[in-house]
């Protein structure tokens, strides 16, 4: 095929190597849809991505543009070609520009029984909304070059694996005077220990350090102590939870002497080159609706959220998405596909077109300084 262009970059097959774009799907209610899709072939003037089900009931799943004249622009489907088989469509994304030749990242909606979807799929589909991410994977003809994740797996050292313990929530009342937290690889001698803070049901440590003894695919163990050596509870974070995009959020804390399920520890784990994991927010702005935030300039290319107004779209997002809540000090890095200066972002926030869909990329404020 010679050389081909993709998203402003040019790669040559004739040179014996190139780049394959992979699409990672997460958040789908039908679990077998989630996973990594590789570029398969051109379809209807666009690209089609394919996921081999590997023995799953779905078999092969495709992401592709729908044939001209059919409702919807892009589909995640079991059908490789025949759009007449609408029952095989799982998710679709409408209102996409015709010139867009790669799948949209956000805005996917589940197909319904009215679309002809098989009844056994309908309930599962409705339980999630897929989100797509792109990865460029180097591949050399004759022998494969490792992807960045595979290279990371093969590294012998993890001196740059950053682990941060932000705090904990719903710690049981006790007579202890101080609380602290440790993290380590289970069974290894290196133990990183936060400073002690006053006893509280919601202690805050904001402790960050590299864990040099970590090796692929070690899990991480977090333990909360009262006073100097009384274990309150512990939890484990599996490698798969932070391998691809890092991890930030709350982990359930298994308490010693209590079966209270509400105790958690808030952590952030990133490997070299990873950004702090963030949230892709999709807001449906109707007539007279307010986004409901106040922002301040965080850097030349980002905005910091300093106030969330009650009843605004962000406040409603937090109520509808408890696992993806937006917090004060979280950082806005992109709006409606626009990255640029902080003033570019401010101008996008000020757009008054109604109604419209607003897509905001938010980076967590768990980028805590040690």
UniProtKB/TrEMBL annotation:
<dbReference type="InterPro" id="IPR035892">
    <property type="entry name" value="C2_domain_sf"/>
</dbReference>
<protein>
    <recommendedName>
        <fullName>PDZ domain-containing protein</fullName>
    </recommendedName>
</protein>
């Amino acid at each position: 095929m010679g050389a081909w262009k993709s998203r402003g970059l040019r790669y040559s097959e004739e040179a014996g190597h190139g780049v394959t774009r992979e699409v990672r799907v997460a958040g789908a209610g039908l679990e077998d849809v989630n996973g990594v899709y590789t570029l398969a072939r051109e379809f209807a003037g666009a690209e089609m991505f394919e996921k081999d089900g590997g023995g799953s009931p779905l078999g092969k799943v495709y992401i592709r543009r729908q044939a001209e004249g059919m409702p919807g622009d892009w589909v995640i489907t079991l059908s490789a070609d025949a759009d007449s088989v609408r029952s095989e469509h799982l998710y679709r994304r409408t209102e996409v520009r015709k010139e867009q030749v790669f799948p949209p990242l956000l805005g996917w909606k589940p197909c319904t029984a009215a679309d002809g979807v098989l009844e056994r799929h309908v309930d599962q589909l409705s339980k999630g909304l897929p989100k797509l991410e792109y990865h460029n994977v180097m591949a050399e003809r004759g022998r494969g070059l490792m992807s960045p994740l595979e290279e990371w797996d093969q590294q012998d050292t993890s001196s740059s694996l950053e682990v941060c313990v932000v705090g904990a929530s719903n710690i049981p009342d006790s007579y202890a005077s101080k609380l602290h937290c440790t993290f380590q690889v289970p069974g290894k001698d290196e133990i990183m220990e936060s400073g002690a803070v006053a006893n509280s049901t919601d202690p805050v440590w904001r402790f960050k350090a590299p864990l040099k003894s970590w090796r692929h695919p070690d899990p991480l163990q977090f333990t909360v102590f009262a006073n100097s050596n009384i274990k309150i509870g512990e939890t484990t974070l599996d490698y798969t939870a932070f391998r691809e995009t890092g991890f930030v959020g709350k982990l359930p804390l298994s308490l010693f002497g209590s079966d209270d399920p509400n105790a958690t520890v808030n952590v952030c784990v990133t490997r070299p080159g990873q950004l702090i994991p963030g949230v892709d927010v999709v807001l449906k702005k109707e007539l007279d609706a307010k986004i409901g935030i106040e922002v301040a300039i965080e850097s030349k290319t980002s905005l910091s959220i300093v106030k969330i107004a009650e009843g605004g779209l962000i406040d409603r997002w937090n109520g509808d998405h408890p696992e993806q809540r937006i917090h004060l000090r979280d950082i806005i890095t992109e709006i409606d596909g626009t990255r640029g200066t902080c003033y570019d972002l401010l101008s996008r926030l000020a757009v008054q077109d109604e109604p419209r869909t607003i897509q905001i990329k938010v980076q967590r404020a768990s980028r805590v300084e040690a």
